[in-house]
Design brief:
mainly alpha, 2 strands
């Protein structure tokens, strides 16, 4: 007997399921689009602020390079003269997006503090000078105290020697 090859296949259904086709495709909720636009907005805010930080760092690096060149004095503008400063500075600001407490945003500018490094260096130098003065004063005080005790001991020895 021959095996029926059709028995190995899927059974034939008498009733074929029909696919349902709707005439109108339901609208997608708008929230997804709003969320993606908001995420895109937040990403752009972060990008602007990141670029502002990079620009500020580049400006400060430009100032550092100019200061190095100013100390070297090897950049004649012309053969006859040397300029005091290779770069002159005015108030500088970069764009910045700030988030308000009501979760809205403000596009504004933020000043770049070109003299911050100099102020910090001056403040550090002042603090170090004050610490050094305090150390020297305490060393003098200890020295004077020890010296006074030594002088007193020497004086007492002389008195004792003279009496005997």
């Amino acid at each position: 007997m021959k095996k029926n090859q059709d028995t190995d296949k899927k059974p034939i259904l008498l009733f074929q399921p029909t696919s349902v086709i709707t005439a109108i495709v339901p609208l997608q909720p708008q929230e997804k689009k709003i969320i993606s636009e908001r995420e895109r907005f937040i990403t752009q805010v972060e990008r602007i602020n990141q670029m502002a930080q990079e620009l500020e760092a580049a400006i400060l690096e430009l100032k550092a390079i100019a200061n190095t060149l100013n100390t070297q004095k090897r950049y004649p503008l012309s053969v006859k003269e040397l300029c005091k400063n290779i770069c002159h500075y005015f108030a500088v600001s970069v764009p910045w997006v700030k988030r308000k407490s009501d979760k809205s945003f403000i596009l504004r500018t933020r000043k770049v503090d070109l003299l911050r490094a100099e102020r910090e260096a001056a403040l550090l130098a002042q603090q170090l000078r004050q610490q050094t003065k305090k150390r020297l004063a305490s060393q003098r005080h200890r020295k004077n105290k020890n010296g006074a005790e030594a002088d007193t001991k020497r004086f007492l020895k002389k008195v004792l020697v003279n009496k005997s």
